[in-house]
Design a protein that fits this description.
By secondary structure, this protein is of the alpha+beta class. It has 2 domains: 27-226, 3-Layer(aba) Sandwich (Rossmann fold), CATH 3.40.50; 239-318, Thrombin, subunit H. It is built from 5 helices and 14 strands.
Length: 322
């Protein structure tokens, strides 16, 4: 009986030790904008206030970066509200050099292993119009331009040093929409900024949000190796089925899928031949259709397919051309 209890105690100890080891293996990460000022914008920032505009973009990049890194099983992202409260209490502001000493004290107060500060180095968003005369009307292309450069400075609290400082630059020049006007109708000026007065150009905002998400994805990829965490295995999206005429995939924004992405839907099929050495059927990859993503949610994506109709279980290989 005594030996049995000893063995049972040893098993319990091993289980507890394994659980603690797994928990301790996760690095505690705190992410904040470099200058945590309060922005009460209700969705609108005066485009003439460049400080507030950059800070607003920084907040959005931080949100996207937290979403990306939180999917990594080797990291534990600290609560944003707690970080904000400590920042306000300390009246913290990181200088232009991202001085490591500025973050060490803060990191210790938060109980973080690594403190990541996000700074927007440059940001510009504009739109313009290009017109072409047709027979009875004028065709207008509203074009959006985005230039965004973001730096993420990772500070090791224990080592009191900067351990990584990746930069991501996103540049976009895309047609937002096409419209037609009668030749006698005055042309409406394009938006010069993402926000104009109390008006917002939704297409330009969508392009801006896409740029922010891409910058966060790029930074997350560059930070992962430095943080010493194992990336979540990337699996190929699969077809779930057909919903209202659109093909549904089992991956969404959390896996990096976005509107406009192109996929080649494939299926492993019996070729009808057998290997002469093994007498086993030869399986070939059959291309079913080309999928263009039109709608994305957190865990699913929907799109239209050109080609045959896919079925549940078909693979979606990224990067196919139309």
């Amino acid at each position: 009986m005594r030996h049995r209890l000893v063995r049972l105690s040893f098993v319990v100890f091993l289980c507890l030790h394994s659980s603690l080891t797994v928990a301790q293996a996760k690095k505690r990460i705190a992410i904040s904008i470099a200058d945590p000022i309060q922005i009460q914008n209700n969705g609108y920032v005066n485009p003439n206030d460049q400080v507030a505009l950059k800070a607003d973009i920084e907040v959005k990049v931080v949100d996207a970066l937290v979403s990306r890194l939180s999917a990594n099983q080797g990291l534990l992202l600290l609560d944003r509200q707690k970080i904000q409260e400590v920042l306000q209490e300390q009246n913290n502001k990181v200088d232009e050099r991202f001085d490591a000493s500025s973050g060490v004290k803060l990191g210790k107060l938060l109980g973080a292993d690594v403190l990541i500060f996000v700074r927007v180095e440059s940001y510009a968003v504009t739109s313009s119009q290009q017109s072409s005369n047709k027979f009875a009307y004028i065709e207008l292309d509203t074009v959006g331009d985005i230039n965004l450069t973001v730096t993420a400075r990772a500070i090791g609290v224990e080592t009191e040093s900067v351990i990584s400082a990746p930069t991501s630059t996103i540049t976009k020049h895309e047609i937002l929409r096409k419209t037609k006007q009668m030749a006698s109708t005055p042309i409406t000026p394009a938006y010069n900024n993402a926000n104009r007065g109390n008006q917002v150009d939704p297409d330009l905002m969508k392009l801006r949000d896409t740029s922010i998400d891409e910058a966060a994805q790029d930074l997350a990829a560059k930070l992962t190796g430095t943080l010493g965490a194992t990336p979540v295995p990337v699996t190929v999206p699969k077809v779930v089925g057909i919903d209202s005429g659109k093909v549904m995939l089992n991956r969404g924004t959390t896996a990096g899928v976005k509107v406009g992405d192109l996929f080649q839907i494939t299926r492993m099929a019996d070729s009808g031949f057998k290997d002469p050495d093994t007498n086993q059927p030869i399986i070939r990859k059959k291309v079913i259709c080309a999928l263009t993503i039109t709608d994305v949610e957190d865990s699913i994506a929907l799109g239209t397919c050109t080609g045959d109709v896919p079925v549940a279980g078909d693979l979606a290989v990224a990067g196919a051309s139309k």
